[in-house]
Amino acid sequence: MIKLFKLLKPHKRFAIFTVILAAISNVMTLGFPLMLSFLINNGITKGDLDYIRNIGILMIVLCTIAMFVSFLNSYCSSKVSALFTGDLRRMVFSKVQTFSQGDIDEIGIPSLITRTTNDIRQIGELLIALLRSIIAVPIMLIGGTIMAVIMDPGLSLVLLIVCPVIAVIALVIAKTVVPFFSKIQKGVDGLNLVVREKLNGVRVIRAFNRTEYEDKRFKKANDDLTGLNLKVSRIFAGLIPVATLLIFLIIAVLIYVGYIQINKLTDPIEIANTVGDLQAFIIYLVFIVVALANVAAMFVMIPRGKISANRINEILDHELKMTVAEKTTEPTDEGTIEFKNVTFDYKDEDGNLKRALNNVSFTAKRGQTTAIIGSTGSGKSTVLNLIPRFYDVTDGAVLIDGVDVREMDFSSVYEKLGYIPQRAFLFSGTVADNLRYGNEDATDEELWEALEIAQSRDFVEKLPDKLNSMVSQNGTNLSGGQRQRLCIARAIVKKARFYMFDDSFSALDFITDSKLRARLKTVLTDSAIIIVAQRVGTIIDADNIIVLENGNIVGQGTHKELLESCEVYKEMADSQLDKSGVNEE
Description:
By secondary structure, the protein is of the alpha/beta class. It contains 20 helices and twelve strands. It has helices at 2-5, 12-44, 49-97, 101-107, 109-133, 136-151, 159-200, 202-207, 211-264, 268-316, 380-386, 410-414, 431-435, 444-453, 457-461, 480-494, 510-523, 536-539, 559-565, 567-576, and strands at residues 336-347, 353-365, 369-374, 395-400, 403-404, 417-420, 429-430, 470-471, 498-502, 528-533, 544-549, 552-557. β11 (544-549) and β12 (552-557) form a beta hairpin. The mean pLDDT is 80.
């Protein structure tokens, strides 16, 4: 947590100013009981109206100043906290941007969201409390104790009882509550996971009539989190009455002791002075108890903040699974992607290693189309994920233009690739915004050309504002085929050296699929194209077809060659194509 608070350095002056304001406010507050004592002893007792008026005016002025200083302190502490959490949020976001897919999988997207929002908010609330208390509490404790002893040394002995009692209460609460905080943060992670799945999969949930089942999942996660929060809230709720009862019991005891002392006096002036001092003493004692209560609250807030800080530090200190070589190598302009004896293992949910690819070797060349086909789970998408280093190979190497991707800067790898993912993803904004995502300088003519190649021009022209028509988040206001074609057009606008299509034609009808691939073959003649597909008709004209089965290459060649040499491919072709080689769809 101390490590995180070092990020306050840019706002150090503002934070110091906040602490000074808190000190001034509390010093002024300490003066009010003393002034009240003077008012009673020297004004009310003697019937001096001028003295009463002057002290009253002075108290009003000081009260106004103290209120303004307190308001300024609250504003400054909130601003420092907002600036600090903003910086911290940017750091976390920047760090997450460097994560590989494996790093993200390890922590989990719901947990990353919780840490970036809820955990940072907890740290911000702790910072506000510390800025307001780090000087204020000692001033109240020390100053209040000194003034109470000055007012009445005998009655001050009650502090020997009050302080240990409050300390015991604070320790009991801290020991009881702190273990819940870690569970609460994990509960928020779990709730975010359920909500995210429920929102993303709403159509599937409704289609399978599983709304009630998902509602039960949400209810369980929500009830578990609510139960934990209620337990903590009940403990804190019980603390307030206990603290209030303690204060009033102390005041009652003090009044009773004061009554006994006053009852022994006979001089009216001395009696009045004792009343004034007793009044001030009681207020100082309340100040001390409130300060001790703040210390007790810190016993709870600091461990809670520490848990959140640890979760944030796990991100900031996370050792990346993938790093850039100290000396990067820039590739030549060969236009090839080569897999050289690539093996890739991954960990399943139980932490056991599973093999996805085994000794895979092939070369994708400029001007050619390389297709990868296989059954579900054969490792097709894994091949594409290794090219942009979403994951690193376990053994072997992936080479771009003769250079291992592990020896290249990430930006150098990404700028060469046009990637169309298996699940078409569009950003909220206009059609033009999405198309220019990889090339901000693209002209409208270039956008329309890409749309025409991707067989998207017709439906975009029918939209109300054409290129300026709005696309909702993830393109939910478009059909699956329209989303896929826009994603393909977006990649074409980028003008990449290598294009990777991860089953990117699955939502298209056969005629559109055929037209689109024919245009790609004639337009992207200077690029290497890699297509992952499950439909034989999609890759039938590819220059080189790689057949995967359980992570192994079981066949490689053209469509005609594979029909003769690869039984797995022949079975797929026979099941999908008629005897003339036409897709049965």
